[in-house]
Amino acid sequence: GENVEQHPSTLSVQEGDSAVIKCTYSDSASNYFPWYKQELGKRPQLIIDIRSNVGEKKDQRIAVTLNKTAKHFSLHITETQPEDSAVYFCAASGGSNYKLTFGKGTLLTVNP
Amino acid sequence: KAGVTQTPRYLIKTRGQQVTLSCSPISGHRSVSWYQQTPGQGLQFLFEYFSETQRNKGNFPGRFSGRQFSNSRSEMNVSTLELGDSALYLCASSLSRGQAGETQYFGPGTRLLVL
To answer: CA–CA separation, A31 vs B38, rounded Å?
Structure first.
């Protein structure tokens, strides 16, 4: 089955810096890669997603890149703000697989 | 549109008991997936239902079961509870136009504590 590895597990940055979180997946049939943000005590919320027919997608300060050949995708947050502090999860699904397989999560702390 | 809702939000049970959790998807969404979230294992897939049929199942023992009703609402049941079943149980719904790789929207979760 699909396996998703996520790094780093914790990331601390200064406000205004950029943050990058990387994920690799194992199933070449996967074609959908969402990123979720989960604040303490709250539900995971979709922040951006990308499909395998696209190499990059951007939404304001957030961008995701996908390298299908290497089977890895990354989340980029620019001009970080304290409210970006949360746990971020990457996930993969697709092919005959209706489930989301999640990475272990990255705890991002943005220091003011 | 109202988001995904789950009831109850919090639950305390003792070992050996059983529990039923409920999930109401976003209106018009036909697929419901269930996930278990724990600090050690992260988010793990339990099962997914579409049109009252289980399409996918994760690697959990048979004590974990679920079902979906004709209005797309779903329930999951855990029998003979163990201490290790303490977790946040999340459900997620998607439109499901018959293809894999669709956006899933999560409910607030049910936090289960087994004593």
So the answer is: 26
B58 CB-near residues (< 8 Å, 6+ apart): A99, B44, B45, B46, B47
Q: Average pLDDT of B76-86?
A: 97
- Tens digit of each residue's pLDDT (9 = 90 or more) over B13-67: 999 999 999 999 999 999 999 999 999 889 999 999 998 999 889 999 999 999 9
Nearest to A88 by CA among A77, A97, A99, A100: A77
Indicate the average pLDDT of chain A: 94
- Is the pLDDT confidence value at B97 over 70? no
Q: Is the pLDDT of residue B7 over 90?
A: yes
Separation CA B11–CA B25 (nearest Å): 20
For A96, nearest residue in chain B (alpha carbons): B100
For the stretch A81-84, contacts whose Cβ atoms lie closer than 8 Å and that sit 24 or more positions apart, written own/partner, are A81/A15, A81/A110, A82/A15, A82/A110, A82/A111, A82/A112, A83/A110, A84/A19, A84/A108, A84/A110
The number of angstroms, rounded, from the C-alpha of B104 to the middle of its chain's C-alpha atoms is 13
Q: What is the pLDDT of residue B103?
A: 87
Query: Is B42's CB within 8 Å of A105's CB?
Result: yes
**Main-chain dihedrals φ then ψ at residue A10, nearest 5 degrees:** -135, 145
Chain A interface, mutation test: which of B50, B102, B111, most A Cβ atoms within 10 Å?
B102
Measured over the CA atoms of residue A36, residue A73, residue A18 and residue A57, the dihedral's sign is negative
